[in-house]
Automatic annotation (TrEMBL):
Protein name: Flagellin FlaC
Gene3D superfamilies for this protein: 1.10.287.1490
Keywords, comma-separated and alphabetical: Archaeal flagellum, Cell projection, Cilium, Flagellum
Keyword Cell membrane included in the entry's annotation: no
InterPro entries, per database record: FlaC_arc (IPR009205), Flagella_assembly_related (IPR052494)
Chief place of localization: other
Superkingdom classification of source: Archaea
Organism placement in taxonomy: Archaea, Methanobacteriati, Methanobacteriota, Thermococci, Thermococcales
Length: 159
């Protein structure tokens, strides 16, 4: 029985309907169109997936950019502080080197500006001392009840 069934399957060949050339070409064209559509849909899906990935990455990139901006600002502030510190150190170095420099006299003789600067410093010091003396004298006079306003008025009227 099984043998007859199998032999009947193999012995009977199905008749295939005959297809004309024009129908074959139409079928081929239709299959090609379907293939093209399927390929286009796959490409569109790939592009959409990539677009979705890019859209997901944009917020992360924005956060990274903001973080970098903050870090740049911090570095900029650190550099400004360092520049200020370096300027302060350079000024301190200049002051110390002018006060402690064993070649100070030699430099002053060579550079007329430094000599003039030294003379101006000495004059400022003497003026400071005179001013301090005048303040003390005025305090003493005010303590004795002397009318300072009239004295100032008299002095200014003489000039």
């Amino acid at each position: 029985m099984a043998l007859e069934f199998l032999s009947s399957l193999f012995s009977k060949k199905k008749k295939q309907p005959s297809v004309s050339e024009s129908e074959t070409e139409e079928l081929i064209d239709e299959l090609e169109e379907r293939m093209e559509r399927r390929e286009e849909e796959e490409m569109i899906n790939q592009v959409m997936e990539r677009l979705s990935e890019v859209e997901n990455e944009v917020p992360r990139i924005k956060i990274s950019i903001d973080t970098l901006k903050k870090q740049f600002q911090e570095v900029r502030e650190d550099i400004e502080r360092l520049e200020k510190t370096i300027k302060d150190i350079m000024m301190l170095y200049e002051v110390i080197s002018q006060e402690i420099n064993p070649f100070k006299e030699q430099l002053m003789q060579e550079n007329p500006l430094s000599q003039e600067l030294h003379e101006v410093k000495q004059e400022i010091e003497s003026l400071k001392m005179e001013l301090a003396q005048i303040k003390n004298d005025i305090r003493v006079l005010a303590g004795y009840g002397v009318d300072i306003d009239s004295i100032i008025y008299d002095v200014l009227s003489e000039v």
